[in-house]
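Hey L., structure's done. Input below.
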Amino acid sequence: MISVDQALAIVLSPIVPLGAETVAIESALGRVLAEDVLADIDLPPFDRARMDGYGVRASDVIKAPVRLRVIGEVAAGATFDGEVRAGCAVKIFTGAPVPHGADSVQKVEVTETDGENVIIKEPVKPGQFITPRASETAAGERIAERGQKIGPAEMSVLASFGYAQVETGKRPRVAVLSTGSELVEVSALPVGAQIRNSNSYTIASYAEQAGAVVDLLGTIEDTIQSTCRALLEASEDRDLVITSGGVSMGDYDLVKAALEEIGAEVYFDKVSIRPGKPTVFGRRGGTFFFGLPGNPVSTSVTFNVFARPAIRKMQGERSPLLPMVRAALARAIKDASNRRSYLPARLYVEDGRALAAPLKWGGSSDLVAFVRANSLIVVPEDVHEIPEGDLVEVMALNDL
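Output:
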């Protein structure tokens, strides 16, 4: 049995980005940049007014009040072709280019107009209420980097600098299966010892959230022949195959044996993690395989600790691991395990402080309790009790 850190290193070491593809900006949200984004223009591209008011020469308004002649106006998107000379002003609106000759703007709230003239009631300083050209970004400057995930802010940057198309990392093709003759489809009513196949939808949702293109391939019967055939078919033209169940030590736990039967190299089959010890990782040709435990909480934990970083790295993401934060423990924890534990929790902020509240859950099959979790409290292998208020490491299940 290997440690979590060893297992994660083994997972990420052979995985390389799948390459790049060009997508339209409309399809870029959530993708990973495969190129640096450079500014193609200065921003702002001109000296820009920050207020509605009047463009003036500061030297004309050293003392106030003062009366100036209004020689025109300029709105956002328009220009003023003349020049603001001594004793003159131009009416200006927020976002408009400051006219030639003006070096300041006075806001409209401290002005009064009598038709052709304006009275400036308060003094003006040079540069007042003006955002200078290129003060936000200069042409050629790198704004976003390769390996950065494209969120709403990055979409704004792409649009601002003319990226109608952008190079992004290819999305991995992922097949999801569940093992177990006891499984029935979601639409069926379980009878006897049957249960609905929920794990496939959990894994598929997490994988899509991580950026993968997912195919749900149903369930596998508990025979070595069916398992081998399903794994081979799932691996065709796919980068990753993820199964749940069939990885423990029982007679019907056949995933590891089936992987070896089809010629895959199994890198590990046990990890010192709670929940989720019987986790399998292997490779056959260009396809990687994760055999995750069948209990729902174990499935979710091991996916987020191991499979999710793999999917993110395949897309070239610079930081493929899920974000970790330090938070104060809202309630004390006792943990008798000698494995590294990932305990379902609610991460929240109260009075400006990050807090993590461990959730009551009935073990690795308690999917109803896990639905309230937005994070996992990480308890090191040699720690068995943490008092309330102590700082703990918390893995956020959603990007921060």
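The mean pLDDT is 93. The chain has seven helices and 28 strands.

-- N.
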